[in-house]
Amino acid sequence: MATVYQVNKGINKAIEFKGLKAQYIIYLALGLVILMLLFAGLYILGFHLVICLLVIGVLGGALFLTVFRLSHNYGEHGLLKVIAKRRIPRFLKSRTRATFLELKKTGKEVQNG
Q1: Closest CA to 58 of 37, 35, 89
Q2: pTM for this one?
Q3: What is the SS3 assignment for 52-111?
Q4: Cα–Cα distance between 57 and 72 in angstroms, integer?
Q5: Are 95 and 60 in contact (CB under 8 A)?
Q6: What is the pLDDT of residues 3-50, one digit of tens each?
């Protein structure tokens, strides 16, 4: 008896669902959960149902448009790279020479690159 195994050709590929790639699926899911909680909160506070539906509809549409635009513009890892690049300081300030003197004492050299 020969056993036939199917080969998964999508190994190491990012998950994609309806055009959303990788982490954007999670962003959309979390946004929808927050919108659902917001709807429940507004309804419990006594807002009229039509007002609740309009607010959630507008915010939901904005959420979908934003997440799909981010997924299309930045791709799988691009948004994380942009966020990481923003966190790199433009310059470093040192008000004392203590760090450099300590490096000199220990014999370590500052590497360029």
Answers
A1: 35
A2: 0.64
A3: HHHHHHHHHHHHHHHHHHHHHHHCCCHHHHHHHHHCCCCCCCCCCCHHHHHHHHHCCCCC
A4: 22
A5: no
A6: 787 766 677 777 777 878 778 888 999 999 999 999 999 999 999 999
Q: Tokens in use for 61? A: 């549409």
| Cβ 35 vs Cβ 11: under 8 Å | no
Q: Tens digits of per-residue pLDDT, 57-81? A: 999 999 999 999 988 888 888 888 8
Q: What is the CA radius of gyration of the chain?
A: 25
Q: Measure the CA–CA gap between 99 and 103, rounded to whole angstroms.
A: 6
Identity of the residue numbered 8: N
Residue 39 corresponds to which amino acid? Answer: F
Asked whether 37 and 50 are in contact (CB, 8 A), the reply is no
Instruction: Look at residues 85, 74, 63 and name the one whose alpha carbon lies nearest to residue 22.
Output: 74
| Token digits of residue 5 | 């195994």
- How is residue 69 written in tokens? 């635009």
Residue 105 corresponds to which amino acid? K
In the structure encoding, which two tokens stand for residue 14, read together?
């990012």
Check residue 17 and report its DSSP letter: E
